[in-house]
Amino acid sequence: MKTALITGGSRGIGAEMVRQFAKAGYRTAFTYARSGAQALALAAETGALAICCDARSEEETRKMAEKVLGDFHHLDVLICNAGTSYTGLVQDMTAAEWDDLFALHVRGAFLAAREFLPGMISRREGSILFISSMWGQVGASCEAAYSACKAALIGFAKALAKEAGPSHVRVNCIAPGVIETDMLKEYSPADLSALSDETPLGRLGTPYDVARAALFLSGKDAAFITGQVLGVNGGFIV
User: Fold this and answer.
1) Cα separations (Å) of 218 from 171, 214, 226?
2) Global pTM?
């Protein structure tokens, strides 16, 4: 049976990826940091393995990997989705806030990839997927730190794809656009309507849109795709 791990899988895009991978027959695990009740409910709904893990922590990531490999014996798909947003002017951001955002998005992806790469390389197969953002491709005003984190993931994926490719391990990114998740809760209905109008396909994206793209990139139909960034943004940027 194929196996998959989604970090930051208790809510939003992550939760929908858990649902879609489990539905597709993957034995699935996911991590969460604070959303314990939601994580347990999702585990009960899907049969997935829920593991509490702070993606920024080297020790917690090591223990999480031991749990996953102990239960699953190997990992076919790693999706690094753990992250959060930050909105504000650069001059108003503290160094601690900047460091924490990079620790969660970028250090977290590095720590998880480092744990599972040896097994994938040994087995000469595997897929790693980083959830970036369209703002990592073009940048967003008042989201400079977030944009920088997501751009770093794209650079990491491209470099790691070259490094791991000879071992038949694929590494890609998904760059979602404006997706209907809790990250939009601070937007007014008028703002959301404007974003929808600005999207050529005329609507906001859904977690399902992103999850199905992740399922494709992780599977055999994408066997010759590596080092790429797939935009799931309804044409918001082209």
Assistant:
1) 9, 6, 10
2) 0.96
